Amino acid sequence: GAGVSQSPSNKVTEKGKDVELRCDPISGHTALYWYRQSLGQGLEFLIYFQGNSAPDKSGLPSDRFSAERTGGSVSTLTIQRTQQEDSAVYLCASSLGSGTPRYNEQFFGPGTRLTVL
Amino acid sequence: AQSVTQLDSHVSVSEGTPVLLRCNYSSSYSPSLFWYVQHPNKGLQLLLKYTSAATLVKGINGFEAEFKKSETSFHLTKPSAHMSDAAEYFCVVRGNNNDMRFGAGTRLTVKP
Q1: Angstrom distance (rounded) from CA B28 to CA A70
Q2: Would an 8 Å CB–CB cutoff place B51 in contact with chain A?
Q3: Which of A7, A10, B85, B100 is most buried, judged by most C-beta within 10 A?
Q4: How far does the CA of residue A110 sit from the closest CA of chain B (Å)?
Q5: Range of the domain at B35
Q6: Would you say B89 and B40 are in contact if contact means Cβ atoms under 8 Å apart?
Q7: What residue ranges do the domains of chain A occupy?
Q8: Do the domain assignments include residue B79?
Q9: Which one of A42, A50, A105 has the shortest CB-CB distance to B104?
């Protein structure tokens, strides 16, 4: 079956513009996560969706960042008024819901490389 | 709070020699720990995970890791390195809300 997919694979934008990044999780995975990987650093957690529950937004670095998940499947991460420090690879992951034996295993997409000029 | 520290940013070994990538964790309760690998221009792949079952965990590609509570460690090992093992390796602990707390990564170089 298909894995986690993300689009676009690369995005170059100008400072101050808004961008939208898309994630299609694995079918049947109710949990979805967004992470950011800056150059030479590990992954930074941004936001977590679990089913229809309110998302955990504790990792979002500023109010310019937001995410939604429509219909419990596809998710969009929006960055408003982009800044140069937003340049990074944005990774999406999905997993089975809590209460399942493989709940802990997250499957990652290939990422979107965002460059803010 | 849960966190991990990868003790080496870069490890270099010769092909056929053992690999040791070190990771220490901090957790207020019994942690779930993982090792992920990221090859150049490829996505993250799960190598192995520890979730309070056997303390010695075997993963893919001949890797294994041992959970040592007394040392708060979860080091990744492989008896014999292969050229294809060259990649970035991340030690990860699961956070309170199932978010994954990544270490800074260890870049493994394998010399012929």
Answers
A1: 34
A2: yes
A3: B100
A4: 5
A5: 3-99
A6: no
A7: 5-96
A8: yes
A9: A42
Is B57 within the bounds of a domain?
Answer: yes
Domain A5-96, CATH homologous superfamily name and number? Immunoglobulins (2.60.40.10)
Q: How confident is the model at residue A103 (pLDDT cuts 50, 70, 90)?
A: low
Residue B97 pLDDT level (bands cut at 50, 70, 90): low
Question: Token pair of A20, please?
Answer: 């939208």
- Is B105 within 8 Å of A111 when comparing Cβ atoms? no
| Position B108, amino acid | L
CATH number at residue B71: 2.60.40.10
- Interface check B32 vs A, CB under 8 A: yes
Query: Does the CB of A35 have a partner CB in chain B at under 8 Å?
Result: yes
> Taking CB atoms and an 8 Å limit, are A33 and B97 in contact across chains?
no
How many distinct structural domains can be found in chain B? 1
Q: Which residue has the higher pLDDT, B13 or A103?
A: B13
Q: Is residue B9 part of a domain?
A: yes
Q: Residue A102: is its pLDDT beyond 60?
A: no
Kindly tell me if the per-residue pLDDT of A44 is higher than 80.
yes
pLDDT digits (tens, 9 = 90+) for B78-88: 999 999 999 99
